[in-house]
Design a protein that fits this description.
The protein is an alpha+beta fold. Helices cover 26% and strands 29% of the residues. The strands form eight sheets. Strands 3, 4, 5, 8, 9 and 10 form a six-stranded mixed beta sheet that branches. Helix 8 packs parallel to helix 9 and helix 9 runs antiparallel to helix 10. The termini are far apart.
Length: 603
């Protein structure tokens, strides 16, 4: 027998009484219930559809760990099927594509490429006993014991934690551009449907500006548009959010003043509106709602570029300026494109900037004009930017979204960081910089990276690879905290570099002077030192083609790879579609066989 699920009620303001409420992330996925007994495992959607065959990775994981939960069976778990971009944001577009697949081979390939999670937020039955009359906090404690203490963290079942601080969680949801947040009353029981006041949902709306050109009287939908250059570009249809009076006035205006067409009435661009939406999917607004009509707005201000900035959700602490200034003339990309990229990539980039001194390269008038390095915090910087003092100098710490966006708004294109954190003299990672003479010899970087990876694999070390963003590759070895000194890493990096150089002396060199390299790739291991810096993962580069220092999956390092394939226009989509190759970077640091390496280099 299937459970009638409890549904949250939409609200414009989340209840903020921590003595009465707890808070959870709302994921953008398929709501579902997992029925798990010794005979079968079924995933059923909120509409009663059987999704078991669509998500075999979840079912297979449950089968693999069934021995751990056998004493608790039968179980009924309530949750969200989601493909996660990060801990706070799910990728609905990729999930929707998965949900449409019917062929078993296609489903299995998709599951291997981007596996789904079942994000579990409630326990409705345990040992066959219903828990729906049990208070929420008791159910949550039982669920945490079951999933967190019993099952591996890396599995397909993901426990959705609760937070007592609504503002803190909302800040995370905003930074990571999650779908929203749900407040749940602590003492509430589980009710079917929406006949309750115990679960409240607040969506993390993007607010965009568009103009209305068409009204369809058969369904009361209005067509929303923006200008792309001089062309009117439809971006979706909307009818919800207006009062009955507003809806009547607007529809009557189209009926009386509009041009009659086959399916409705058309007016030229004149009436603007603010629209709430969750996302853009295939160029169309998702779940749009009118926020308000803006009758005095000029439709010419409703542009595709402004739409991109609105969808990016720039922090309110930073006022974007001169967004139409061209920064990459060769590609026609603007400062607005930079701001959009930086905002969207921030959840993946910030972990590599946090607690480190930041050096930026600023290009206030674009990459072809004057540029300068900046490592000291300017006097006019806002107070929200964190900083630290050393020897009378004030340095920059970029550990917040608004800090990152503020620097981008001031023309910072490149972001460089040292290998150690601000309060440490020991490195967080080892990095090899593989620098061919030019992009024409990029194949040398591929060959060198492949050889170095094999050496590191033989030593049991987990390594990561990224493009420099210019013409080379960089190999990272994350280290456990305070595990190796720079003297230790110098011995190690020299040994690896010399091994590769000696194996192929006509291809690779450790010679620092460019005029003596004779067309060979330079393996830069000397640059790995205290306070020396390297381009941060996901940083844009000051190149004509707007390339990015993009992390890669090792299987991508082959002869098809080219640096110019990864730019500020496609790297965000790549990460959200394929996942972040550096996702398990810090996790890998704690499993490195450092003691064995230390013993080896000290012999």
């Amino acid at each position: 027998m299937n459970v009638d699920i409890m549904k949250p009620i939409a609200t414009a303001e989340i209840p903020k009484k921590p003595d009465e409420w707890m808070y959870e992330v709302k994921y953008d996925g398929f709501r579902g219930v997992l029925y798990w007994d010794k005979a079968s495992i079924r995933l059923i959607s909120k509409n009663g559809h059987d999704l078991t065959a669509n998500f075999p990775e979840i079912v297979t994981f449950c089968q693999e760990i069934e021995h751990s939960v056998e004493p608790h069976l039968p179980l009924v778990l309530d949750g969200e099927i989601a493909i996660l971009n990060n801990p706070y944001q799910a990728n609905f577009a990729v999930l929707q594509q998965r949900g449409r697949l019917k062929n078993t081979d296609s489903i299995n390939k998709a599951a291997e490429k981007r596996p789904a999670h079942f994000c579990v937020f409630d326990l409705l039955q345990q040992n066959g006993n219903s828990l729906q009359a049990t208070p929420y906090m008791e159910r949550k404690a039982m669920l945490e014991t079951l999933l967190v203490q019993t099952l591996p963290e890396t599995g397909r079942l993901r426990y959705v934690p609760t937070f007592s601080d609504a503002q803190h969680l909302w800040g995370k949801v905003f930074i990571y551009k999650g779908e929203g947040m749900i407040a749940k009353r602590k003492n509430s029981t589980y009710h079917a449907g929406k006949k309750h006041h115990d679960w409240m949902k607040l969506k993390n709306w993007r607010t965009i500006q568009g103009f209305i050109t068409f009204y369809d009287p058969k369904n009361n939908y209005f067509t929303i548009n923006v200008f792309e250059n001089e062309t009117i570009k439809p971006i979706g249809k909307c009818k919800h959010g207006l009062s009955d009076e507003e809806m009547g006035t607007l529809s009557q205006l189209f009926r009386t003043k509009g041009e009659k067409r086959e399916n409705g009435f058309y007016l030229p661009p004149a009436i603007c509106a603010s629209i709430h939406t969750l996302d853009l999917y295939k160029g169309e607004l998702r779940e749009p709602e009118f926020a308000q009509l803006v009758l005095k707005q000029d439709p010419q201000t409703c542009t595709k570029q402004q739409l991109q900035l609105d969808m990016a959700m720039l922090p309110s602490t930073v006022e974007a300026t001169n967004t139409d200034k061209v920064f990459w003339p060769e590609k026609g990309l603007t400062k607005g494109d930079l701001l959009t990229y930086i905002r969207e990539i921030a959840p993946y980039m910030l972990p590599f900037l946090e607690n480190r001194a930041l050096t930026v390269i600023r290009c206030p008038d674009g990459v072809t004009r004057e540029h300068f390095f900046q490592k000291h915090l300017p006097d006019y910087a806002p107070n929200f930017i964190n900083r630290f003092e050393r020897n009378g100098e004030t340095f920059i710490v970029c550990d917040r979204l608004d800090t990152l966006v503020w620097f981008a708004n001031h023309g910072a294109i490149e972001y460089h960081v040292p290998f150690q954190q601000i309060n440490s003299s020991m490195p967080n990672e080892i990095v090899f910089d593989l620098d061919p003479p030019s992009r024409n010899e990029f194949s040398l970087a591929i060959k060198a990276a492949t050889l170095i990876k094999q050496l590191l694999d033989d030593l049991g070390l987990t390594s990561f690879v990224k493009l420099s963003g210019n013409k080379g590759l960089q190999i990272y070895i994350p280290l456990p905290k305070e595990s190796m000194t720079y003297d230790d890493t110098a011995v190690f990096t020299q040994a690896i570099a010399w091994t590769v150089e000696n194996a192929h002396p006509t291809l690779f060199t450790t010679e620092r002077f460019k005029d003596k390299r004779n067309g060979r790739l330079y393996i830069d291991y000397v640059q790995h030192g205290k306070d020396k810096t390297i381009i941060a993962p996901y940083s844009p580069r000051k190149t004509n083609d707007a390339t990015v220092a993009a992390p890669l999956f090792w299987e991508e390092v082959n002869n098809k790879l080219r640096p110019e394939q990864f730019t500020i226009k496609n790297v965000v989509d790549r990460v959200q579609t394929d996942g972040c190759p550096f996702k398990k970077y810090r996790e890998a640091a704690n499993t490195q066989p450092i003691n064995a390496i230390l013993q080896l280099i000290k012999k």
